[in-house]
Amino acid sequence: MFQSTVELYRTIEKANAVARCNARDGAASIAGPSSLGCRRTTAAALTAELWELWGDGRVLVEGAQRSLIVAELMDGQNALVASPGTVDLLSRFFARYGSALTRACPDAVPLTDRERAVLELGRRYEARLAEAGLVESDEAAFLLAGAVAAGAVPCLAVSAVDPVDAGPGLAALLRCFGCGEEARAAGSAPSVLPSLPAGVCPRFLVPAGPTAAAALVHDEIGTALEAGEHAVLVVAPDPRPLYDALAPALAADGVACALRCPVAFDRTWFGRALAAVERVASQARPVAAATDFVYNPLAAVGARDARRLNGALRADRLIDGTAMATRLSDLSPTFASFATLAAGSDAGFQERARALDAIGAHLRGATGLSVVARSCESAAVAALATALDAAAALGCAPASALGLARQATVPVSALSPSVPGAPSVEFAALARLGSLVPDSYDAVILADLTDAAFPAASRATALDELAEKLGLPERGAALDEQRRRFAAAMGAARARFACVVPQRQASGEEAYPAFVLKEYAARLAEAGRARALADGDEAAARAWSETDRDLFDLPVPLAADAICRGEDDLVAGLGETYAPVTGGLALANPVRGCLDRLALVDFLRTVREEGRRLVVLSPSALELYLGCPYAWFVQRRLRPSAPDEAFGPLEKGSFVHGVFARFYDRLADEGIVRVVPEQWAHCEAVLAEVVDAELGRQRTLEAGEGRLLPLSRAERLEVERLRDQIAESLRRQSRFAPSYAVHGHERPIAVEDAVDYAGVRVNGRVDRIDVDRDAGRFTVVDYKGAVGAPYAAAMDEDAVVPPVPGRVQALVYAQALRPALEGLHCAGALYLGYRARTDKDLVAGAADGAVFEDDPFVKGASLVPMNFEAYLDTVESQIAAALEGLYRGEIAPAPRGAWVCEHCPVPNCERRLS
């Protein structure tokens, strides 16, 4: 009687490949002669077929259903950490040992509390499966084995071509079919690798790093194609970057390029868009989340609109998730669908299914997506649809489906157009090695032979010890699995087998070769020595016994033939054709600080008056130009700035200026001309009201007006610290210059006021003017966070010409106000540090020595030992000489001190001092 036989393979792809090879070659089986009725499948598929025919009506549980159930059960216990990693680990454990856990005898062996918790969870898992009408594949195999033994299920002739990593139930079923030990031993890896098939050329490619690796793979493919090797397989841990880099050039030459690899769900555009919308809805970093979404291709937002929205959102710290969602909904046709998917418990399965269909329809009609991207995104949409269907069938919450999808990987496949008979190159992930059959490709290129791609480390998990205690079947050794994969790659090659062994990783760290490289090289050396001895060439035999330490201890003949490539030629390493550049355009080397073709003054604001053309500068810009012309050019003309509304020194400084101005206005309304220690209690109460009012006013300002907006707890603590600093500063100010009173503050100097200084027109705003009416003097006060040496006049008594201080802003204002304050003489141009911690750190600048010599707040470095107004005139004349360079267009780097470089945005300046 005719009896069907079954051959078991590792993957269904390999089983189908064997069938194609046999149909092409006319053989019955690569495993040996068999009847024409031979079926080729996998152990899991065989169990599913038999269970469908002879099962008890329950349905085999799918991976998505298993993960959802385990995640659901994890929420109801406290013994184990409920994390995605734990759910994945337990799901794989239950899938492998499901048939044995309910029959385990935990009292027979010593178990820890957590191990008992795992077994209890396993029993609850089995109960939940029964409730849902589901059964684990391994449990189904165990029941089928009993049915076969009882004669209720026909016995099959089963042989294992590949080893079967079986759980206890599947192992029992295979034993019933006479395929017990055979299933574990079939195709098992030997202690050493097999020899390279006869006629296959070994190749070693040694790039210095990943940039050179792509170029070497490109060249090796070209060499193989030129040699008539038309079927090439390139295998890498992540083949997509290689495909993206090489496929365009290969396709242009008529080579068909295919890609097969898995991609993590959260690395797809669909997964990223969904995660971004979830963050917008939860108001966790909403600006960054909204930016991530608008730049996502699936948002269907034009590049110009995306940039505009990005700038608008980042410039406004007050915008919240609700407002962002409204703007995104108005701009993106897909945002509403993504928002429905990410709606938590607010949307049911039907609403989410309709939203997913809408995104799928948009994806099908989208333009500008590559074949790979379209395949990847379609697979991601399908993965979420599968998770939603599984959750709906089990009665789980829709949110659990989102969590399941985030942990998934999606299959990506793509094939470029080709003509019949054209050469082909397939780019695949390492998992492809498990499906290879012998002599299936002309050339095989392993694009990464480092220990990261073929790890030797044990893959044991925290549950393997529990399985050992319960006497459950162990998994195969990791070393054997890696040898088996490498041997499959060797056997698949008909003419060429190339290994890429990079010397460094993408991070720049040293890369280490996989253990199989040493074993593979040893096998090649053994074969080489045997050939040399057979030919009577003892010198060649000795050469095969020597190794090259600089090339991973490869035998000398192999090292001599290895192709090495550095990363020094970046163009050849990244170019479209990976070839040296044959032509180019020579450009003049730019010189920092040199404007070859531009007249600087033509690009500055100027005014014409009496035949003169005066540049308009604020005192702070003038100060910066004196500090370093190049720093001024970059900061004030190029104006590099981040688009985000910040919470930093500039915003805090603007806030403090506003507090001081409104504080002194309140005192003026009450007839108080200065803060004195005796009135401090009242002034402190006024200050508290002013600070509160100013904080409230910040939210009424428009974005871009320097608002101080504390949004987090840490920022609110910073504001409270700033409040204390302001109060402490005013206490000290109450004891500073007791004969002076506040005359004015925030006084503007407009261009129309025609105030000139050192050959330029001045416009700006004076922070504060203090006046001693009895003595007929005034002092300019400029607020700063902290003051130090660059602010001081630093003039020795015997100096003939006073030096120009690093900070001259207050000096410019003092000189500019002299004509406007008739009858008053200037006695100081001072800076007040409102964050000062001590009295000596409160004030710095330039002060008339005859007036402020006895003031405890004014240090000696700030005293000017000469007529102060003559000092102002002399400093202005020196500044005028320096500003002549501005009219000549001089912007070369020339920092006068490290303080100029501290905030300069040019980190690679050759003159940088800090």
TrEMBL record:
<feature type="domain" description="PD-(D/E)XK endonuclease-like">
    <location>
        <begin position="617"/>
        <end position="908"/>
    </location>
</feature>
<keyword id="KW-0347">Helicase</keyword>
<keyword id="KW-0540">Nuclease</keyword>
<dbReference type="InterPro" id="IPR038726">
    <property type="entry name" value="PDDEXK_AddAB-type"/>
</dbReference>
<keyword id="KW-0269">Exonuclease</keyword>
<keyword id="KW-0227">DNA damage</keyword>
<dbReference type="InterPro" id="IPR011604">
    <property type="entry name" value="PDDEXK-like_dom_sf"/>
</dbReference>
<dbReference type="GO" id="GO:0004527">
    <property type="term" value="F:exonuclease activity"/>
</dbReference>
<keyword id="KW-0067">ATP-binding</keyword>
<dbReference type="Pfam" id="PF12705">
    <property type="entry name" value="PDDEXK_1"/>
</dbReference>
<dbReference type="InterPro" id="IPR027417">
    <property type="entry name" value="P-loop_NTPase"/>
</dbReference>
<keyword id="KW-0378">Hydrolase</keyword>
<keyword id="KW-0234">DNA repair</keyword>
<dbReference type="GO" id="GO:0004386">
    <property type="term" value="F:helicase activity"/>
</dbReference>
<dbReference type="GO" id="GO:0006281">
    <property type="term" value="P:DNA repair"/>
</dbReference>
<protein>
    <recommendedName>
        <fullName>PD-(D/E)XK endonuclease-like domain-containing protein</fullName>
    </recommendedName>
</protein>
<keyword id="KW-0547">Nucleotide-binding</keyword>
